[in-house]
Design brief:
Blueprint (H helix, E strand, L loop, with lengths): L1 H10 L5 E7 L4 H14 L16 E6 L10 H10 L20 H7 L3 E6 L6 H4 L11 H10 L4 E3 L17 H7 L2 E5 L1 H5 L6 E5 L2 E2 L2 E2 L18 H15 L3 E7 L1 H7 L3 H24 L4 E6 L3 E2 L3 E2 L18 H14 L5 H12 L9 H15 L6 E2 L4 E2 L1 H13 L2 E2 L5 E2 L3 E7 L7 E4 L3 H10 L1
Parallel strand pairs: 1-9, 1-10, 2-18, 3-4, 3-9, 4-6, 5-6
Antiparallel strand pairs: 2-17, 7-8, 10-17, 11-16, 12-15, 13-14
């Protein structure tokens, strides 16, 4: 009887801490592919080295279409995950008629909760902005930044603002200065953030370098990361004690935004690394859950799938172990080829091959047939003649030599892609903690935010 009473008390415990993880562009295959890739490089080709999220006891899937399209963009999907209401693509925090929607973060803030919004991309990007901004177009970055300062949320973390002085550097007031006037301390990098933990409110962005603040659109990919680069794990590790010190209840939205960026480039190795990077940040939240199991809820989902990722492109085999030969993202590889052609307008084929060898393992540990080499060389010849156009992706144009190299490695690993945009694939849901069972089964993305609120208020 006593044991049953303890169980009953545990089940009815009040939720005080909510972690809402959103893997931007993270379909089920991005998660499974990341697990199978790590398994392959650990010598278990038919196994899975599980992410933390797939060990959670409750799981499901959600559809992600928007009010206007069968395939959503991040603004409409983010708005839905923040409010439980669908809207048109490109819209943030407003319904299809332009009426303002209240987000779960705004509701909880009004009820006395501490609020943290964090991401691996810009803090005014679509998904984080969906929790505090209300604008008809996601590209209104300066207005979104103004609304961030007005939000009164307690903690923001990410790469920074897209255009802190306006897109054309035409705004009178810098957004960082505007935030400081609203009571936020701005910390550039993890170390500086630890020195500002007594601030009333905190914005943590990446550190400055010799040329001043780094570009605000994204943190480094995990595969490209250098010592001192800000990470999502560091952001979450800063946010938890910051909020816990000030509030007895808090809500955190944590976005792994660079999964989407990598998938827009059809770059499997980089995308899988970003899934594991978000999962690493999840371990920080999980450790907090273990210390507060009766008061914590962790929910993981995605806004949409990106790339139409297929685990298999020919027969019944995968060769994901080949992806370990990739030493940098498609972005960095593209820049290496661009720099080579800037230094020498007509570099030799051997110079080009040297980059492929060093960064993709071609001809060294990845076998390249005569036909495959000829196809790569054809791209090189076009580049030498000045006839090679970069491949345009959502966030960055990629040098054709880099793009073709990544595509060939993906093909040899038996990875397939259907698009460089979003797909209508269902996205996964994982949950652990109090009321986590509410997130099982097939859902629409309209269900998730209301279900979190239901769990809190029951």
């Amino acid at each position: 009887m006593a044991a049953l009473l303890i169980v009953a008390l545990a089940v009815s415990a009040e939720i005080k801490y909510v972690f809402y993880f959103i893997g931007d562009g993270m379909g089920a295959n991005q998660v499974l592919g990341a697990e199978m890739y790590r398994s392959a490089i650990k010598g278990e080709p038919l196994g899975r080295v599980q992410t933390l999220m797939t060990t959670f006891p409750y799981s499901g899937h959600a559809s992600s279409y928007s009010k206007s399209n069968g395939i959503t963009d991040s603004a409409a999907a983010g708005t839905c995950l923040a409010t439980g209401s669908k809207t048109t693509n490109g819209t943030l925090g407003l319904d299809e008629k332009g009426e303002q929607l209240k987000t779960i973060a705004e509701i909880l803030k009004e009820e006395g909760w501490g609020i943290g919004i964090m991401t691996t991309v810009a803090i005014d990007h679509a998904t984080p902005a969906a929790f505090y901004a209300h604008v008809p177009t996601r590209d209104a970055y300066y207005t979104i930044g103004e609304q961030l300062a007005e939000s009164k949320f307690d903690f923001f973390g990410g790469a920074g603002f897209h255009h802190p002085n306006g897109k054309n550097d035409d705004k009178e007031k810098n957004l960082y200065r505007l935030a400081e006037e609203a009571g936020y301390a701005v910390a550039h990098g993890y170390k500086e953030a630890q020195e500002k933990m007594d601030a009333e409110k905190l914005i943590l962005v990446q550190a400055t370098d010799d040329q001043g603040p780094k570009h605000g659109s994204n943190l480094s990919y995990a595969i490209d990361r250098k010592e001192g680069d800000l990470t999502l794990t560091e952001i979450v590790s800063t946010a938890i004690p910051f909020l816990e010190k000030r509030y007895d209840r808090f809500f955190m939205m944590v976005e792994g935004g660079m999964i989407d960026y990598a998938c827009h480039g059809d770059d499997a190795a980089t995308a899988f690394g970003e899934v594991w990077d978000m999962d690493e940040a999840m371990h920080v939240a999980y450790a907090f859950y273990k210390a507060h199991p009766d008061e914590t809820l962790i929910v993981v989902t995605a806004d949409h799938e990106t790339g139409g990722l297929a685990l298999g492109n020919s027969d019944y085999t995968l060769h994901l172990d080949l992806l370990q030969n990739q030493k940098c993202s498609a972005w960095v590889l593209s820049d290496l080829f661009t720099q080579l052609f800037k230094k020498n307008k007509k570099p030799s084929w051997e110079q080009v091959k040297a980059i492929y060898k060093e960064y993709l393992g071609f001809w060294e540990t990845v076998e390249i047939s005569a036909e495959e080499e000829q196809a790569l060389k054809a791209v090189y010849v076009k580049a030498v003649k000045g006839k090679s156009k970069d491949t345009k992706t959502m966030y960055k144009s990629i040098n054709k030599l880099g793009d073709k190299g990544i595509a060939l490695l993906n093909k040899k690993a038996h990875i397939g892609w259907t698009t460089r945009a979003h797909s209508a694939h269902a996205v996964p849901i994982f949950a652990i903690g109090q009321k986590a069972e509410l997130f099982s089964g097939w859902k629409d993305n309209t269900d998730i935010a209301p279900t979190i609120l239901k769990a809190i208020k029951e």
